[in-house]
Amino acid sequence: MSTDYDQYFTTSEFAKVCGVTRHTLFHYDDIGILKPEIVKENGYRYYSYKQFYTFDIIAVLKETGTSLNEIKEYIENQNTSHFLTLIEQKQQELVEEQRKLERMQRLLQGAVDNTHRALQVNCGEPWTEECEEEYFIAVRLSKEAGEKDHVRKIYGIFDYCDEHHIEYDFSIGSIIGRTNVEEGVYDPDYYCNKISYKHEGELLHIKPKGKYVIMNHKGSYESLPTSYEKLKSYIAANNLTITGNAYEYDLLSYIAVGDPDKYVIQIAIQI
Hints:
DNA-binding; 8 helices; DNA-binding transcription factor activity; Multidrug-efflux Transporter 1 Regulator Bmrr, Chain A; MerR-type_HTH_dom; Multidrug-efflux Transporter Regulator, Chain: A, Domain 2; 2 domains; DNA binding; GyrI-like; single chain
């Protein structure tokens, strides 16, 4: 009995109907998720209209992020229970992905806001301000360790926040202990990232509510000691006393500007 090939799609026709390339269909054939119904001796391939439904299954599942291996497994064991399990799993993955995208949007908006703020602030002039309690995820730095370990510490903050689903500010900050500030040692004791709520965890650092002397430093990290000395002179001239840590917060850093002399770093010392 002869086959009426007019009732079948050639590879090019089927690819056009499905909105994919011929190479995609060849790949699906190779991995066994959608083989042509007929392959002639001369190598010509033909697809039936029923195979469009198989392709539609592949397209829908692929759109949800399902891998081709998972799709193949589903097609080979196609039933309602398997379908629900697969779709509910992908639904949960999409919810998680949406959460990550929303978090990234807030992170980027914070970076935009900080950058605009950095372009408008006055630098080099101290002032006093009453500040509310703030929260940070902070890691202590070892004085004996080198820069390599410091990089690991920074990424340790990121990993910790991701693991505990904590949203953090775009910029890295530093904390210098009171004693070191008073003695003129301005190397960071901690690296930190600001967070929006009081996370109950081992890396939580609380910046106390109270009065701070604040100044925006413009210049490289290496030039920060000059601004610290200016802040300490201001504190002494106004009969104030250092009572807590110093906090550094990047407003404009290496991420947004190539010239270190154009960095803007806000310093706040508790008094």
